[in-house]
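Here is one chain, start to finish.
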Amino acid sequence: MCGIAGILLASDALDIKPLGAIGRMTASLRHRGPDGEGLWIDREAGIALGHRRLAIVDLSAAGHQPMHSASGRYVITFNGEIYNFRDLRSELECAGQTFQGASDTEVMLCAIEHWGLEAALNRFAGMFVFALWDLKTRTLHLARDRMGKKPLYVASTRDALVFASELKAINCFPGFSPELDLDAAAAMLSTGWVPDHRCIWRSVFKLPPGSVLSVTAANFAEDRSADRLSRCVHRWWSLAAVAADGRRNPAIGTDEDLVDELDNRLRLAVRERMIADVPLGGFLSGGIDSSAVIALMQAQSCKPVRSFTISFGEGGFDEAPYAAAVARHLGTDHSELHLSPSAARDVIPELPQVWDEPFADESQIPSLLVARLARQHVTVALSGDGGDECFAGYGRHFMAERLKRHLRLPRQLRRTLAAGAGFFARAGRDDAVGKLPLSASARHFIRSDRMERLARLLTASNEDELFQRLARPQAENLGYQRPTEPTHGYGGPPLDDLLSRLLYDDMAGYLPGDILVKLDRATMANSLEGRCPLLDHRVVEFSWRLPSNMKVRDGAGKWILRQLLRRYLPQHLIERPKQGFDVPIAAWLRGPLRNWATDLLADMRTESSDVLDTAKIDACWRDHIDGHNRSRELWSALMFQAWRSKANRQAQQTGPTHERDLAGV
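Its structure:
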């Protein structure tokens, strides 16, 4: 795992001095790779590549990057891991290829020379982004893995194409002039995150998952616009095609046969991700996904694996006892960190610097903290991310079939049911549920906005409307600008059922835009590599071939994953309500975070009145203080403002020495 950066000058650029910025750009990514730095510059060709190394496989100098291919034709700077590199190496050796070291990077270069770029990409099983410079054709190839696990930002400036693992590196390039993208800001204020197909800065885009961009200095000189560059992107793997093909050609077999197949695929994915020359462990929340990953790790390990969890110790939010019970049963070497609310809140000022773009998924806080805990003991940690998207783990997934049945009920009856849900939602806001004999998790559900959402879902009049309301929940947009495209509408391939449409929408949007961004930044901020076996492309492709009743059955999601887990854990450790990685933001905003929020609200009036509707925000804030839960809307607005304040301070410190246009910040 590493950080990469690069510069390609336009063929008509008159000055090669900007290539010298590669050192500053690469240095800004030190947290992604504290074990070494590498720079490669070809001034005649107008290309510079940078690399920060987090040494995982082959810790010797033979793994140093940027790395040249054996023939000298290619130079690569690569972030990620190719998990099947040993199998590929054996195949290449049988074809007469030889190797100097033991790294996956060397295998990648050899595979590209032997099979060609796109054929090699299709052979790689892993997470990656890389920049490959072809000295023969003077072509730069930028490539990203299938699911978008690793990030790559691409910026167009007056004289150069600039790319990096994080925006902070692009901000170090002297010709980059940041200008706020209002559409991206509007999307973030609605969903809490900037969609993967957008960037908070104009003239910057993210290389899409499963794609490659090939460009020469002359091509870039013809049209320097980021829009034009993004249109030149070529898909070498398509989630839409995989989803459509999987639904057309479903897996055939008994329930037991399909569970066996999933067990085999996941065992392989976990086993490959346990290859490392450094200490390794896994995140364990006690939920289905992380428990399955840890169970398969322990089943294939000759010693106790390291597992990590954290606890906030607040009612309705503490998953540590579940994780500890799973760890005891499996026999892992378990580490548990109990955090006071104040310790958790102390990281909030760090969030804008860690995430670079405004990001308002409050589970970023425990994600950052559990990564910090794990890094004290290991350099690699496996996670359960992706299980919900592959096997239908969100409430909207297993509610889909139930609510479809409700569409057959008389309209008046549906309205009555919706009114009942609305009553409980109001009771939650007024805290009347505190007088009822309910569990902490039940109170948490009623006090959240989920009961209000249920009331709204029950009034849907048809399946399309139901999809619109079930798809990723959005907060009220507290900005002036509305997103130019639907942020939760279906835009995928034609699929045969509501559940598949919801799963595709999540896998194509929410997963790369929120979940994987959260994991990448939280782990890499701590120089920790996070690996996701449930997002192995062979597992993802199999999940799309599964009949829907293998995912949702008997009113519960992830049915097949539960059956698999029963082979490793007793029933009572599997069947419990889904809780998620929640933190009590609503209560904190009324209490210990109130002064922090008030200060940011004041900053909004002077710094963000062009984006945020301060009158609407003030009303929302008063509503929240009065006891109504408006934390989702407020957290998005507050995190946007925290990010913008950081960006403004950064721009003022940088000043004219970097030739910045500060008007857009």
